[in-house]
Amino acid sequence: MALATTHLWLAQLLKSFKWVPSKNGVDLSGNLKMSLEMKNPLVCVAIPRY
């Protein structure tokens, strides 16, 4: 049930917004702490479709 709810929630986000990457692009270099993390977090811009 939780997986189905998550799929519906994600589908609504994808349907309701136009997603564009940030102007800085994606930096895939890592930063090793307790786990491997991105140096700069992934940023997307959500633009309402309606």
UniProtKB/TrEMBL annotation:
Q: Does the keyword Oxidoreductase apply?
A: yes
In terms of InterPro entries, this protein maps to: Cytochrome_P450_78A
- Alphabetic keyword roster: Heme, Iron, Metal-binding, Monooxygenase, Oxidoreductase
Q: What superkingdom heads the lineage?
A: Eukaryota
Gene Ontology terms, MF aspect: metal ion binding; monooxygenase activity
Protein family: Belongs to the cytochrome P450 family.
The protein's name: Cytochrome P450 78A4
State the organism of origin: Dendrobium catenatum
Encoding gene, per UniProt annotation: CYP78A4
